[in-house]
Specification:
InterPro entries: Adenine_glyco, DNA-3mA_glycosylase, DNA_glycosylase. GO terms for molecular function: DNA-3-methyladenine glycosylase activity; metal ion binding. This protein is mostly helical. 64% of the residues lie in helices and 0% in strands. It is built from 13 helices and no strands. Helix 3 runs antiparallel to helix 7 and helix 3 packs antiparallel against helix 10. The longest helix is centred in the middle third of the chain and has 21 residues. The chain is globular, with a radius of gyration of 16 Å.
């Protein structure tokens, strides 16, 4: 998505996300959960739409508090389906709620989502996709790839001449620890 470096420049919505979030390492559970949820919501839609609805989605999903969302029931699903400020897709909403429950389960085995991600690293995208399909709901190749790039586990978010690339390099994201050569042969 290196074209994003040009497209986001000066854009009032894409710009801040590109410059301060996309590709930057994340570890906080709610931030990781939010990013996964946003990528799920984006499937088939534009990223601009998701960024415009991000605040409302966050409110609707309790600030992406994993325990709160994991406890959502049928009434919450109906509430979310009636909320015109978010993406009203039953399959995506159900997947996000189920994924909160699966993240809870990762606490016992890996002390949380961040610990689970770190324990799986490094992997090429195709192996990550297989793992995500076994572990989470509604996580195909594009969703998994974009999620992992957006949190620093896969390369490809910025060109090397992009100022955001230098900011990310200073944070030493997981993919940089193994280098681009590790990922070069992945066909996915």
């Amino acid at each position: 998505m290196n074209w994003y470096c040009d497209a986001a420049k000066g854009h009032p919505i894409h710009g801040p996300y590109h410059d301060r979030e996309y590709g930057f390492p994340l570890n906080a559970e709610s931030a990781l959960f939010e990013r996964l949820a946003l990528e799920i919501f984006q499937a088939g839609l534009s990223w601009l739409l998701i960024l415009k609805k991000r605040e409302a989605i966050g409110r609707a999903f309790a600030g992406f508090d994993v325990d709160t969302v994991a406890a959502f029931g049928a009434d919450d699903v109906e509430r979310l389906l009636g909320d015109s400020d978010i993406i009203r897709n039953r399959l995506k909403i159900a997947a996000i709620i189920e994924n909160a429950r699966r993240i809870q389960a990762l606490r016992a085995s890996h002390k949380g989502f961040a610990g689970w991600l770190a324990a799986q690293h490094p992997r090429v995208k195709s192996d990550w996709v297989k793992l995500f399909k076994k572990t989470f709901k509604f996580t195909g190749g594009e969703i998994t790839g974009e999620f992992l790039m957006s949190i620093g586990y896969l390369p490809g978010t910025h060109r090397e001449d992009c100022p955001a690339y230098d900011a990310i390099r200073a944070l030493d994201p997981p993919w940089m620890a193994v280098g681009r050569a590790f990922y070069a042969g992945d066909a996915s």
